[in-house]
Amino acid sequence: MKIVAAKVIVCSPGRNFVTLKIETDQGVYGIGDATLNGRELAVVSYLEDHVIPCLIGMDPQRIEDIWQYFYRGAYWRRGPVTMRAIAAVDVALWDIKAKLADMPLYQLLGGRSRDGVMVYGHANGSDIAETVEAVGNYIDLGYKAIRAQTGVPGIKDAYGVGRGKLYYEPADADLPSVTGWDTAKALNYVPRLFETLRDTYGYDHHLLHDGHHRYTPNEAAILGKALEPFRLFWFEDCTPAENQEAFRHVRQHTTTPLAVGEIFNTVWDARELIQNQLIDYIRATIVGAGGLTHLRRLADLASLYQIRTGCHGATDLSPVTMGTALHFDTWVPNFGIQEYMRHTEETDAVFPHDYRFEKGELFCGETPGHGVDIDEALAAKYPYKRAYLPVARLNDGTMWNW
Ligand code: GCO
Ligand code: MG
């Protein structure tokens, strides 16, 4: 069996997506997501100029070997561009293998470990009152877990405050927009949000919060401690994780569960965090961490330390990643939760899929493969549009972590 063609489809049905389609000499094809928010075309070039020429003629059934070929064979290892390109190939090949086996992907991974996959949605508002209302909307929609982010008085466009009720899209401008940040103000305001949420809705729902890499380890420890009475499901990206050792300080000072990893590319980004049990949830997902082949290894390592998965699922991960992640989540023994930011109707139409939401859970379908396709004719109606993520500056102009 041979790969006879592969192409990259770039489209922007509400936001940009990069999709790889691999075709075989037996007529079966597979689809993979390669979207890297704000840097999409770098991955397009990596695939078109450097990966596709090697793929043609390869046996698509040799998923592991092809993964190693592109990882070891590039010589230059890791990084978001490389690992997304590898992920796209890997997912397309798993799609092909599952279609050939006439099975939904989770069956190939080892079968079902659960019926549905608990997801969390994003509630946000420009202040506490608005966020409390937004959380109420998610509760009405049947969510069991909700991430809450609030604007903070005195901070220009604090992280996480979107424009719509269900759709939150940070990559919004032709050149990066400039947002503000003030840690002292956030440290005073965020605990009040969670206090009000628990006073209003009680303790029956899981609440999550994203620090989006803004705090130093000690500030993260202060916030984690202040949030303890409100029993968060997790406090995410409490501090930047390039220095994995930084989490030790946070861990020593708070029992609030910690989650990290949406920007991780490989198991090496998380090894010390996992082996020293400095986190509770690992957030890496299919497109970010080299596809199913690599994410499986990461999840297995995490399981040895009772760390559970919490796959990234923002709108910049296409329905192809969401569909594949749901098969992974349905199988993985140490599943924790799945992030679920809804895509726009235009995006859902371009990527027909068989997963569905019901009572706070997502269910993958039974279609052979990962269950997500691309309508190329429709995709062609939405050409690429440059869109950057914002940057963040402190009040005195200093660049900060967005
Ligand atoms: C999350 C994330 C996202 C990222 C986005 C960047 O927890 O969902 O932090 O919202 O900001 O994926 O492209
Ligand atoms: Mg996040």
Notes on the protein architecture:
With 402 residues, the chain is of the alpha/beta class. The protein has two domains: 3-104, Enolase-like, domain 1; 109-367, Alpha-Beta Barrel (TIM Barrel). Helices cover 36% and strands 19% of the residues. It has helices spanning 40-55, 63-72, 80-101, 105-109, 128-140, 183-201, 217-227, 246-253, 271-275, 291-304, 319-331, 345-350, 376-379; strands spanning 3-11, 17-24, 29-33, 117-125, 145-150, 178-181, 206-210, 234-236, 258-260, 281-282, 308-311, 335-339, 356-358, 361-363, 391-394, 399-400. The strands form three sheets. An eight-stranded parallel beta barrel has the order 4-5-7-8-9-10-11-12, surrounded by four helices. The protein has a three-stranded antiparallel sheet with strand order 1-2-3. The chain has a three-stranded mixed sheet with strand order 6-15-16, with no helix packed on it. Bound molecules: D-gluconic acid and magnesium ion. The site of magnesium ion (MG) has 5 residues, from loops. It comes from Novosphingobium soli. Pfam families: MR_MLE_C, MR_MLE_N. It catalyses: D-mannonate = 2-dehydro-3-deoxy-D-gluconate + H2O. Belongs to the mandelate racemase/muconate lactonizing enzyme family. GalD subfamily. Its cofactor is Mg(2+).
Strand content: 15-25%
Instruction: Supply Rg.
Output: 20 Å
Distance between the first and last residues' Cα = 46 Å
Structural class: alpha/beta
- Can you list the ligands bound to this structure? D-gluconic acid, magnesium ion
- The CATH C-level class name of the largest domain: Alpha Beta
- Following the backbone from N to C, one meets helices and strands in this order, namely EEEHHHHEHEEHEHEHEHEHEHEHEEHEE
- The CATH architecture of the largest domain is Alpha-Beta Barrel
SS element count, helices: 13
Level of helix content?
25-40%
Q: Major sheet: order of its strands?
A: 4-5-7-8-9-10-11-12
Tell how many strands the DSSP assignment holds.
16
Stretches where pLDDT falls below 50 for ≥5 residues? none
CATH topology of the largest domain: TIM Barrel
Arithmetic mean pLDDT: 97
Number of domains: 2
CATH superfamily of the largest domain: Enolase-like C-terminal domain
Q: What does the overall shape look like?
A: globular
Protein name: mannonate dehydratase
Family: Belongs to the mandelate racemase/muconate lactonizing enzyme family. GalD subfamily.
Keywords: Carbohydrate metabolism, Lyase, Magnesium, Metal-binding
Organism: Novosphingobium soli
